[in-house]
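Kindly draft a polypeptide, keeping tokens residue-aligned:

***
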Amino acid sequence: MIETDLSHYLINLTSVKEGHYDDIVSKIIDGRIDEITDRLTELATNEENGWNKLVVYLDLRMRGKRLANSNIPNVVSVVDRSDKPTTFVMIASETRPINLVRLIKLLDLSKSLGVNVVLAIVDKYGDVTYYSLEEINLLK
């Protein structure tokens, strides 16, 4: 069963750095890929959606974004200078279905925290497309 209640992830929402990915991305940016080949293989085989998360993490870092661990599976937080989350980036693959209940819960959580939500879709070539999400209410 897929966990849809996100409230228990709030405990460590801010100030926890995404060290695992941060170290890998720093070495990729510095051109030291030979130092992390074992870790990349481990990431691709052992962590669900790990490769897509790394691709999005690298893309956001290359765009100058500061990132932190949101403790919500397949979600990365973009943070400001004070490590306060400004955006939740939900990571998905174009070949796998998106859990809409979980997505709605993330939107509810973000609304209560005043945080934006972006859906990052990674295609089979590793290209990332970002979609800004928000809740709308249609009136009669």
